Automatic annotation (TrEMBL):
Protein name per the record: AraC family transcriptional regulator
NCBIfam families according to UniProt: put_DNA_pack (TIGR01560)
Organism name: Butyricicoccus porcorum
A Pfam cross-reference name: Phage_connect_1
Classification via CDD domains: gp6
Segments crossing the lipid bilayer: none
């Protein structure tokens, strides 16, 4: 189970056509990887988050990660020519603070 499907990503980006599906898919994968890295999630933790278990802690973690991934996806899509990855990473650190510190 992916946290965000291609259709959800396209809806978030307000893209109706299928012309950019490949690009959006690559950006979505990059956004997921970047968020997992910034949140300091191990492969095992990411697998749990990306799974189907419905423990309360995982549900909260998924909600936070979904917001961060969608934000990252939007940023990468809009700034695909000149993205400021340092600024993006700083914003993600703030968004994912609770995950990084083990609060969620």
């Amino acid at each position: 189970m992916a946290l965000i499907s291609l259709e959800e990503a396209k809806t978030y980006l307000r893209v109706d056509a299928d012309d950019e599906d490949a690009l959006i898919g690559v950006l979505l994968s990059s956004a997921e990887k970047l968020c997992a890295d910034v949140a300091r999630l191990s492969e095992e933790q990411w697998s749990a988050v990306n799974g189907t278990d419905d423990k309360e802690q995982l549900i909260s973690l998924r909600a936070v990660l979904r917001v961060a991934i969608l934000y990252t996806l939007g940023y990468l899509y809009e700034h695909r020519e000149q993205a400021d990855h340092h600024a993006l990473t700083l914003t993600l650190r703030n968004l994912l603070f609770s995950v990084r510190e083990g609060i969620v």
